[in-house]
């Protein structure tokens, strides 16, 4: 139970980083990480991550949680690559994405990645502990 609470707090702290400004620049309105929540896939991934943390289905919980967290990371990268297409440039431009990206985006991406690594570590530790009890 302590592990689940720890993972939940860590995951919630990484989700708080979406309230930070992610993109913007000179003469461009700042885009906050809340834009991630406009994507239904990202919302589904958040629910899957919580489901993976709080359910007790063994390896299935680990898989579901991993899909959720990897999905969040993928959606962050997708937003990084495409946020400017509709509102600013009208086309894909990696250079523009890099130039107009605030460090807070990288911080947010790193926080979710660290949460994923901790999640995998804890589940690996749980699986090793459970396998030691099998007779």
Layout of secondary structure:
Layout: H1 2-16, E1 21-25, E2 28-32, H2 40-54, H3 59-89, H4 94-99, H5 103-132
Order of helices and strands: HEEHHHH
What's the end-to-end separation, in Å? Answer: 25 Å
Low-confidence stretches: none
How are the strands ordered across the major sheet? 1-2
Number of helices: 5
What is the structural class? mainly alpha
Summarize the structure.
The chain is mainly α and about 140 residues long. Helix content is about 70%, strand content about 5%. It contains five helices and two strands, in the order αββαααα.
Report what the structure shows.
With 135 residues, the protein is mainly alpha-helical. 72% of the residues lie in helices and 7% in strands. The chain has helices at residues 2-16, 40-54, 59-89, 94-99, 103-132, and strands at residues 21-25, 28-32. The protein is elongated, with a radius of gyration of 17 Å. The model has no long low-confidence stretch (mean pLDDT 89).
Question: Main attributes?
Answer:
single chain, 135 residues, two-stranded antiparallel sheet, 2 strands, elongated
